[in-house]
Amino acid sequence: MEPIPGYETTKQTITAGSGPVVAKGDTVTVHATGIVEEGNKKFWSTKDPGQQPFTYQAGVGKVITGWDQGCLGMNVGETRKLRIPAHEGYGAGGFPAWGIPPGGTLLFEIEVLSIKGKGGEL
């Protein structure tokens, strides 16, 4: 795992992608699976039955800090692992509704499916 400059979240590329990269302000659609490191318990996956890919606006604080910063620079088709400490995730309060305990460290595997920049599909 390598550090993300200025953050404690770390990243590791699992599968390289190609083409456009995720930049601040882009609309990004991903497959994602989240696990609480303490206990190794999955709390969410877009690949589970009945779930769909997740779409968000990158780099502008619409998702937790570790995810927001950890996905910048990813290419379409890239799969990356992120390890997000609590203070860059859901913090001291956790997210009990999803089974994330107070101070929980999060592990995400994220695959970029598409990127739409301000001018449309990239």
TrEMBL record:
The keyword Isomerase applies. Keywords: Isomerase, Rotamase. It comes from Micromonas commoda (strain RCC299 / NOUM17 / CCMP2709). InterPro entries: FKBP-type_PPIase (IPR050689), PPIase_dom_sf (IPR046357), PPIase_FKBP_dom (IPR001179). It catalyses: [protein]-peptidylproline (omega=180) = [protein]-peptidylproline (omega=0). This is peptidylprolyl isomerase. Its EC number is 5.2.1.8. One of its GO terms (cellular component) is cytoplasm. It comes from the Eukaryota. The keyword Isomerase applies. Residues 25-116 form the PPIase FKBP-type domain. Pfam families: FKBP_C.
